[in-house]
Amino acid sequence: MYKAIAANKRNTVIILVLFVIIIGALGWLAGYLYRSTGLTVVILVFAIGFAIFQYFFAGGQAIAQSGAVEIQKSDNPRLWRVVENLAITTGQPMPKVYIINDPAPNAFATGRDPAHSVVAVTTGLLDIMTDSELEGVMAHEMGHVQNYDIRVSLIVYGLVVAVGLIADMFFRMAFFGRNSNNNNPLVLVLGLVAAVIAPIIATVVQLAVSRQREYLADATSAMTTRHPDALASALAKLEAYGKPMQKQSTSMAHMWIADPLRPGLMNRLFATHPPIPDRIARLEKMGGEF
What we know:
Blueprint: H1 2-34, H2 37-66, E1 69-70, H3 77-90, E2 96-100, E3 107-111, E4 117-122, H4 123-128, H5 131-146, H6 149-176, H7 185-225, H8 228-241, H9 265-269, H10 276-289
Parallel strand pairs: 2-4
Antiparallel strand pairs: 1-2, 3-4
Helix pairs in contact: 1-2, 1-6, 2-6, 3-5, 5-7, 5-8, 6-7, 7-10, 8-10
């Protein structure tokens, strides 16, 4: 467990450094093609500034994008008590608690560290879960906090957004740039390739980050509650009653406990979450060991 937490912290630094290097390289390429050193400097400064901004503010962006509303204990005592008890049990600071008005059952956690963490659940999840199942789900989300998964997910979220911005920038430069080099076929090809492969790169990054962390958070939930069958039952309900979120976003799909996207061929091929039956089987095996 401690090795996993250390690996998450290490991966965050690696992702951030690679992020700045890749965007810096793209900036150098854009400056070379347009014969503008200033363009390279602007893109590199943007990359560094964007990385810093994402570290401190991407959690707030995810909350705003999901439509979540912060609550106090009086707004939903049941959910508040579950989160509060888990915080006391695990020795974590009490996270901010949010509710999303959406009939699709789902939940996620975000923030840069346990002291600045957030957990959010949908009204659909609160409606169908028993108390023990809700505890299992929230222990899973707070497991993401405990294991520093939230920090890695946050950076990945920012990376996915940045990849989309860069792809869009190259695409516009290729077609609408005023520089004489906009007739350069290499610029046009680069813009088209970036626009096409950007979503694929983003999804591959999400896949690499998400799947193993879901298994780890499931295990953390089981160890915290000593009741893995409750989370297994909750996952079975998510499988049975799951549906696409009203506010869908591929950039933060990896943050949710269940895939929030509309099922389709591409989504099935590039799913950000491991199959729920596999997660249930692992939890049932853990239950036999307690």
